[in-house]
Amino acid sequence: MKLMSKFPGGTLLIPMFLSSLIHSFFPNLFKIGGLTEGLLSGSALGFILGSAVMISACSLDFTTIGKVAKRYSLLIGIRLAINILLSLAFVSFFGLDGFWGLSAIAFITTLTSTNPTLFLGIVRDFGDPVDQSAFGLVSLLASPLVPMIIYGFINPTNINIMPFISTLIPLILGIIIGNTDRELAKLMSSAMPYIIILLGWAVGAGINMLDALKAGIPGIIVLN
After folding, report:
1. Where does the sequence pass through the membrane (predicted)?
2. How far apart are CA 131 and CA 121, in angstroms?
3. Which residue segments constitute the domains of the chain, with CATH numbers given?
């Protein structure tokens, strides 16, 4: 724990790096079924991430919601505007097929990508309770809905809103708990440090460094 605390977001990044390293060279090491596979193979990522969204939302009482909106609304608005302008510029110069194997959809997805797990790890070390409570909002931005809206604006296509809704439900559940039972909300919030470590490991299990290197420049860009 002392080692992890020396690095910004270390409680997330160090487990993620170790997990990625192991799964890059030994991808089937933990795929033996049962509890070991459930805990260490990364198959529980959806459950862990959903738990993190709900637990962080437990600290969102009505007063905190206003503070989160005030702090992050302008930041998110500016970020989305920049993403749209750069996406339009990319398509104008390189078209939908892009260059060097980097297509417009890959560029837009990478440009608009938000890493809520890294956000959670950093604000845990440097943020205040308002920043930590914003994790659910940041997770909504990490859904595929955002890049698909931008891509659909450029090249009309069908948009699937279910990933957005599936993130919104645990967020709403957490808000309900936080505003109806403060003792339960406090108990659940105390689990967040452990959730961050498990989340880092689960995310790392899905990162194969060797595949990114084999994919060349586009793979390295997307990985970063």
Report:
1. 7-26, 38-60, 72-94, 100-122, 134-154, 160-179, 191-210
2. 11
3. 2-223 (1.20.1530.20)
